Amino acid sequence: MSSKLISIIPQSFRGRAVGVVITIFLRALLNFVGIATLIPALILILDSDNATSNPHVRAAFEMLNVDSYEMFVIVVCVAVVALITLKNTLVLLLYRHERDFIYALYKHLSESLYISYHNRGLSFVKSSNSALLTRNVNVVSLMFVAGVLKPVAAIISETLLLLLIMGALLWYNITAALIAACVFMPIIIFFYLTMRRRLHNIGERENEAQRTKSRIVAETFRGYADIEIGGAFPQMLSRFERAMDEVVALRKRNAIISMLPQMFTEVGLTIGLATLMLISITDSGNTAVMFGIFAVAAIRLIPSIRSMMSSWSTIRYNRYSIDTLAEADIEATQRVPEVCNERIAFERELRIDDLSFRFDDAHSNTISNFSLTIRKGERIGIKGSSGAGKTTLFNLILGLYPATSGAIYVDATKLDASNMRRWQNSIGYVSQSVFIADGTVIDNIALGYDKDSIDHNRINEVIKLADLKDFVSTLPDGVNSRIGEQGSRLSGGQRQRIGIARALYKGADVLFFDEATSALDDRTEENINNAIRTLSNKNRALTIVVIAHRDSSLEYCDRIISLD
Question: What is the residue-wise DSSP string for 485-507?
Answer without folding.
Answer: GGGTT--HHHHHHHHHHHHHHTT
